[in-house]
């Protein structure tokens, strides 16, 4: 792709050999300075697709902010900054991370050293612009990462305010798994004849993910969750709920039996969210209960299962949830399960239309409750003691 010797050495250092389809298509266009929109499902390598052109085009000898990456969540911004540091190993480039929930003093000090790349969330970026600590007058490239999610959670006014303070002759790159009308309007307003790279295809939710639906009565969801965990024995699993209250409720019911479970949502302090994410990345956590607010910030290749405890509010949310597993950096295919009540049949149909794929139904196998720990009852020809669904949760860690 005509990359510099320094970049090739950095890529070799992190064992990146063959570009993913979105990288192979997006990088050559971005390297020309042309505005570009990249659409591809979550987990296909979009971060490298824009980080590599940033590092190749900025002047590493000039002390000024030349590239700005906007992300919807603190977790995602942190992951982008980490990836940028890895790929900048041959440039000695240290990106600044500007996110809420972290001490602003340190971020101001980071800006005082005039970093070439800034990665942040719109709220904190606006704050530091207004304080006068962030100067975008010499910006060359602006990146909108997960643009659809940023608009979903109400960042459009902040994004527009930031882009208006950027030089008009900048390059703008927009990456997204979906391109709903609000994102298209944003692109029309702030991008110059952008070239489109659309690799979403018909299988937007990914060929690497086996997807199922589970019919269930609302009051029996928790029992089905336990049966599913017992039957699947996931390596690492994220359970998505619509509300923070439901996430906390599930966490309270499971933590009594499972030492490797945690919950994460927007009401948690940033220090606690950081602690949960660290435990997830290290493999200490096996089960995470999450809301969509932070779901986009979870980019862990070891996630083997996704469970939609609640049907997502939109079809695009389904695409992003399922994209947490079956990632190109994973050695295993992912599995996704969506709990559907009889009142939610139309919502399931809309999801199937969106991804152009019929989901198979999953039912608990007949032996879902026979675990090694229970076998002794069978061998002794003694009836196993009666247990309710919650009692089976402790077998998940067996």
Automatic annotation (TrEMBL):
EC number per UniProt: 3.6.4.13
Keywords per UniProt: ATP-binding, Helicase, Hydrolase, Nucleotide-binding
SMART domains named among the record's database cross-references: DEXDc (SM00487), HELICc (SM00490)
Domain Helicase C-terminal: 208-370
One Pfam family it belongs to: Helicase_C
PROSITE patterns xrefs: DEAD_ATP_HELICASE (PS00039), HELICASE_ATP_BIND_1 (PS51192), HELICASE_CTER (PS51194), Q_MOTIF (PS51195)
Coiled-coil regions listed: none
Top-level class of the enzyme under EC nomenclature: hydrolase
GO MF assignments: ATP binding; hydrolase activity; nucleic acid binding; RNA helicase activity
One term under GO cellular component: cytosol
Every Helicase ATP-binding domain range: 27-197
Stored InterPro entries: DEAD/DEAH_box_helicase_dom, DEAD/DEAH_RhlB, DEAD_box_RNA_helicase, Helicase_ATP-bd, Helicase_C-like, P-loop_NTPase, RNA-helicase_DEAD-box_CS, RNA_helicase_DEAD_Q_motif
Domain DEAD-box RNA helicase Q: 1-24
Aminoacyl-tRNA synthetase among keywords: no
Family: Belongs to the DEAD box helicase family.
Name of the protein this chain belongs to: DEAD-box ATP-dependent RNA helicase CshA
Organism, scientific name: Caulifigura coniformis
């Amino acid at each position: 792709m005509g990359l510099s010797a320094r970049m090739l050495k950095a890529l070799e250092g992190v064992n990146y050999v063959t570009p993913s389809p979105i990288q192979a298509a997006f990088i050559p266009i971005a390297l020309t300075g042309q505005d570009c929109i990249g659409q591809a499902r979550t987990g296909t390598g979009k971060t490298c697709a824009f980080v590599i052109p940033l590092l190749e085009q900025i002047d590493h000898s000039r002390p000024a902010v030349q590239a700005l990456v906007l992300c919807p969540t603190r977790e995602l911004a942190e992951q982008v900054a980490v990836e940028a540091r890895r790929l900048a190993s041959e440039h000695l480039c240290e990106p600044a991370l500007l996110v809420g929930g972290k001490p602003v003093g340190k971020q101001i000090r980071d800006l005082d050293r005039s970093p070439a790349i800034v990665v942040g969330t719109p709220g904190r970026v606006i704050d530091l612009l207004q304080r006068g600590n962030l100067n975008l007058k010499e910006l060359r490239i602006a990146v909108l990462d997960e643009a659809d999610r940023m608009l979903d959670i109400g960042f459009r006014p902040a994004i527009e305010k930031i882009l208006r303070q950027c030089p008009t002759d900048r390059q703008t790159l927009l990456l997204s798994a979906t391109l709903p009308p609000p994102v298209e309007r944003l692109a029309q307003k702030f991008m110059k004849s952008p070239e489109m790279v659309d690799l979403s295809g018909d299988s937007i939710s990914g060929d690497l993910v086996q997807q199922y639906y589970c019919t269930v009565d609302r009051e029996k969801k928790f029992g089905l969750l336990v049966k599913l965990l017992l039957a699947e024995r996931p390596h690492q699993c994220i359970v998505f709920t619509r509300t923070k209250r439901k996430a906390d409720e599930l966490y309270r019911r499971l933590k009594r039996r499972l030492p490797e479970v945690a919950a994460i949502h927007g009401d948690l302090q940033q220090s606690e969210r950081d602690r949960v994410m660290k435990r997830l990345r290290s493999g200490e956590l096996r089960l995470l209960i999450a809301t969509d607010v932070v779901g986009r910030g979870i980019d862990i290749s070891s996630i083997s299962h996704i469970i939609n405890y609640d049907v997502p509010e939109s079809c695009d949310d389904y695409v992003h949830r399922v994209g947490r597993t079956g990632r190109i950096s994973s050695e295993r295919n992912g599995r996704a399960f969506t709990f559907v009540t009889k009142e939610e049949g139309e919502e399931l149909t809309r999801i199937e239309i969106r991804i152009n794929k019929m989901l198979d139904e999953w039912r608990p196998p007949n032996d879902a409750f026979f675990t090694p720990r229970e076998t002794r009852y069978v061998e002794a020809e003694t009836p196993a003691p009666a247990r309710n669904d919650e009692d089976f949760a402790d077998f998940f860690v067996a």
